[in-house]
Every structure is written in C-alpha cells, then in structure tokens.
C-alpha cells in the first residue's frame, strides 16, 4: 500500500506499532461513539479494530492509512478506503484522536483518500456511512463534496449514506 502525503500529513499504512496511540484514540467515548463500525473503548476492542484495518489491507489491498502529523511526527488518526464484507459500496472513512479535532486534518486526509479511490482504485462512486447526529462527520463529508444519498441499516444500526460519483 502506497504512502500518501498531504500538506500537513503523511498517510502511511497502519502497523501493530500504532497500537498504543490507536487504543488511546478509541478510549475516548467521544471518538468511539461516532463510528458506524461500532467498537468499544477498551484496549482489547482497539486491538481488534486495528487488526481489522490491517487485515482489510491484506485482503483488499487497501485500507485506512495512519495519519501522521508532519510537524510533530505524532499519530493523529486514521482515514482511507474501506469495504469490509457487507459494506454497501466502496467507502471512505475518517477518525481522529480527540486532540487533533478542529485542525482540518480529517478533511485533508479524506480528500486525498477520495482521489485515491477514484484515481487508483477506479471507483465510480464512493460512499461514507454516518451515524445520525454525527454533525462533525457530516461537515467533513460535505466539505469533500459528498451529499446525502439515502439511509440504510448497517450492522443493526440506522445510518446515513453520504457519497459522490465521478
Ligand atoms: C469526524 C471527525 C473526524 C471530524 O473532525 P474535525 O476536526 O471536526 O474535522 P476536520 O479535521 O475536517 O476539521 C474541521 C475543523 O477544523 C477547522 N480548521 C482549523 N484549521 C484548519 C485548517 N488549516 N484547514 C481546514 N480546517 C481547519 C475548521 O474550521 C473546522 O472547524 P469547525 O468544526 O469549528 O467548523 C472527528 O470528530 C472524529 O474523529 N470523530 C470521531 C470518529 C468519527 O465520528 N468518525 C467518523 C465516522 S463516520
């Protein structure tokens, strides 16, 4: 999987070495509660989640990247293409550690991920599943050019489907 670079982020493959940062990110209920891929907040939950993202790369050849803040080298979150079994299309997703909210990193990474989906993966439609009430995620979706397409059920929850075609 390639490494991408944006103005302020390096987007590189997630590895097992990201576990402590990843677990700290998901330990915050404000972060975990936003995720349509609902996970818990424990370190065991985080390990399974990280393993799923790394395993997805093995199976699909692409997955979320770790987002590394260029200025500091710190782990800021994850974002990227996503299509696990049962997902209703090619997705692009984003998740930031709480102390990296409000800097524009999710939008910056999501734009790069979206270009990768259309340009490299050859997608014609890219979607994002967003839980009702996740206004910050809706804002990211709208900033990258998504619009609300429909609602659906995903893993037992009602979710909004945002997306765009190119
Ligand atoms: C969803 C989530 C990634 C959004 O994070 P975010 O920080 O609001 O989104 P961005 O990184 O795009 O940042 C946008 C904000 O940064 C601000 N910003 C500051 N500096 C900026 C810059 N240089 N460039 C762009 N925006 C900047 C913007 O004005 C905007 O602020 P606002 O929220 O007050 O309007 C974050 O809330 C999160 O990780 N939530 C938990 C997980 C989750 O819900 N994931 C989505 C599942 S669908």
UniProtKB/TrEMBL annotation:
It comes from the Bacteria. Residues 9-166 form the N-acetyltransferase domain. It holds the Pfam family Acetyltransf_3. InterPro entries: Acyl_CoA_acyltransferase (IPR016181), GNAT_dom (IPR000182), N-acetyltransferase (IPR051531). PANTHER family: GNAT FAMILY, PUTATIVE (AFU_ORTHOLOGUE AFUA_3G00765)-RELATED-RELATED, N-ACETYLTRANSFERASE DOMAIN-CONTAINING PROTEIN. This is RimJ/RimL family protein N-acetyltransferase. It comes from Nonomuraea angiospora.
């Amino acid at each position: 999987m390639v490494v991408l670079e944006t103005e302020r982020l390096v987007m590189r493959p997630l590895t097992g070495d990201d576990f402590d940062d990843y677990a700290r990110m998901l330990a915050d209920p404000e972060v975990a509660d936003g995720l349509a891929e609902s996970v818990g907040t424990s370190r065991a939950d985080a390990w399974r989640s990280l393993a799923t993202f790394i395993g997805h790369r093995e199976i699909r050849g692409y997955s979320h990247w770790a987002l590394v803040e260029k200025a500091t080298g710190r782990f800021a979150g994850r974002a990227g293409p996503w299509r696990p079994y049962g997902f209703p299309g090619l997705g692009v997703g984003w998740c930031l550690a709480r102390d990296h909210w409000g800097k524009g990193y999710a939008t910056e990474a999501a734009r790069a991920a979206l270009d990768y989906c259309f340009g490299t993966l050859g997608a014609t439609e890219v979607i994002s599943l967003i839980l009702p009430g996740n206004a910050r995620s809706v804002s990211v979706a709208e900033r990258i050019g998504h619009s609300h397409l429909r609602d659906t059920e995903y893993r037992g929850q009602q979710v909004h489907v945002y997306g765009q075609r190119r």
